[in-house]
């Protein structure tokens, strides 16, 4: 009798365990099949800010020690950045970044509380911004292929990297869902579930196919193809979310083309803000002349196409704790060699031109 009761208890326990497993299976990430040319990577992204308005975009690769840190700072009202690629060991990171101006380095402790350490011999302390957003996830899909049916010097490669960006939404907020849907509107018009990786993979790989099908590979007209899209956070506050998407594509020739798409959202309703929404008058001559003055402080008038026709209508812009930055991509107001053009208006400078309902946008 005792043995029968014991067996019954064991069977009940097994049944409970299976039931719990089935209930939780919907929250677990699925195992999906990828070809040898495909990769699917998941990153946690955190936005950390300091008292002086500098900020870090920290990308932590899932199930890995890999960490990528974008350090964004300000020099003479211009925005600059260093990118560090390193590993995290028990919360400690250390890395160097080298550019035309010398060597910069980051060293310190990264934790849930933020980052505390040194950047270029300067003590720094970065903490999470006061915002409804706790962070975000980036799912990156890549497809690379290098055919081997040609001689070594004729081999051409195809490299494609595309990403989906989703703010964390543990609270099931309809506003955050709305923002996430708009951020990824160029990729899909459907709501995405971070746990349904097969759906994400199918969306990104299907978007890649037209480019791959048009790529000639080897032969007389063959070329190396490279394409990448990546996301970053420019600003998070209790009222505003400002993000960017960097795009680069090379299809042969002297150089590729690149640019950034900026999106600014109101957290009160999830609406994407246009420059016309927040400025009293985009045709204000005083403001336009001040924009011109700032552009001419970067380069002389001959470096631009025609500043007399400069317009702020439908202008690409983004917001940080320092103020509002107007931006123009390559070929918009200047040749390729000039790169992107940006002018930063500090909070005090831009305040007289803002509509009353947006004068508190930087608080």
Cα Rg: 24 Å
CATH topology of the largest domain: Heat Shock Protein 90
Number of helices: 6
Question: What's the architecture of the largest domain, going by CATH?
Answer: 2-Layer Sandwich
Please count the beta strands (DSSP E, at least 2 residues each). Answer: 16
The CATH C-level name of the largest domain is Alpha Beta
Strand content: 35-45%
Structural class: alpha+beta
Describe the strand arrangement of the main beta sheet, using strand numbers.
1-2-3-4-5-6-7-8
Summary?
The chain is α+β, with helices and mostly antiparallel strands. It contains 6 helices and 16 strands. Helix content is 20%, strand content 39%.
Commentary on this structure:
The structure is a single chain. This protein is an alpha+beta fold and 363 residues long. The protein has 3 domains: 43-128, Beta Barrel (Lipocalin), CATH 2.40.128; 136-266, 2-Layer Sandwich (Heat Shock Protein 90); 275-358, Alpha-Beta Complex (Actin, Chain A, domain 4). The chain has helices spanning 2-24, 174-183, 197-214, 275-278, 285-298, 347-350; strands spanning 38-49, 55-61, 66-75, 78-89, 92-99, 102-111, 114-119, 122-128, 136-145, 158-167, 225-236, 240-250, 257-266, 316-320, 323-328, 341-346. The chain has an 8-stranded antiparallel barrel with strand order 1-2-3-4-5-6-7-8. A 3-stranded antiparallel β-sheet has the order 14-15-16. A hairpin with a 2-residue loop joins strand 3 (66-75) and strand 4 (78-89). The longest helix has 23 residues, at 2-24. The model is unreliable at 1-28 (pLDDT under 50).
């Amino acid at each position: 009798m005792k043995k029968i009761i014991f067996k019954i208890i064991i069977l009940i326990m097994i049944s409970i365990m299976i039931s719990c497993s089935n209930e939780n299976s919907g929250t677990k990430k699925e195992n999906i099949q990828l070809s040898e040319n495909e990769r699917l990577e998941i990153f946690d992204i955190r936005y950390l800010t300091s008292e002086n308005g500098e900020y870090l975009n920290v990308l932590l690769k899932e199930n890995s020690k890999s960490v990528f840190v974008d350090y964004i700072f300000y020099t003479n009202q211009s925005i600059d950045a260093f990118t560090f690629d390193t590993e995290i060991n028990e919360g400690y990171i250390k890395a160097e970044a080298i550019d035309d101006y010398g060597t910069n380095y980051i060293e310190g402790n990264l934790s849930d509380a933020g980052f505390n350490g040194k950047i270029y011999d300067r003590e720094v302390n970065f903490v999470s911004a006061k915002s409804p957003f706790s962070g975000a996830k980036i799912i990156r899909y890549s497809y690379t292929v290098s055919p081997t049916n040609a001689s070594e010097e004729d081999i051409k490669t195809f490299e494609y990297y595309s990403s989906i960006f989703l703010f964390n939404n543990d609270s099931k907020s309809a506003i955050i869902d709305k923002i996430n849907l708009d951020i990824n509107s160029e990729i899909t018009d459907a709501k995405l579930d971070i746990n349904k990786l097969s759906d994400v993979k199918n969306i990104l790989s299907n978007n890649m196919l037209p480019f791959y099908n048009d790529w000639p590979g080897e032969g007389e007209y063959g070329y190396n193809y490279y394409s990448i899209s990546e996301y970053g956070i420019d600003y998070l506050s209790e009222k505003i979310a400002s993000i960017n998407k960097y795009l680069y594509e090379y299809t042969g020739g002297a150089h590729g083309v690149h640019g950034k798409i900026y999106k600014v959202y109101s957290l009160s309703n999830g609406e994407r803000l246009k420059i016309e929404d927040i400025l009293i008058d985009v045709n204000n001559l005083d403001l336009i002349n001040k924009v011109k003055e700032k552009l001419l402080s970067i380069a002389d008038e001959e470096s631009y196409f025609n500043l007399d026709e400069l317009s702020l209508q439908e202008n690409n812009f983004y917001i940080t704790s320092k103020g509002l930055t107007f931006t123009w991509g390559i070929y918009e107001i200047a040749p390729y060699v000039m790169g992107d053009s940006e002018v930063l208006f500090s909070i005090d400078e831009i305040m007289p031109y803002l509509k009353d309902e947006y004068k508190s946008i930087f608080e």
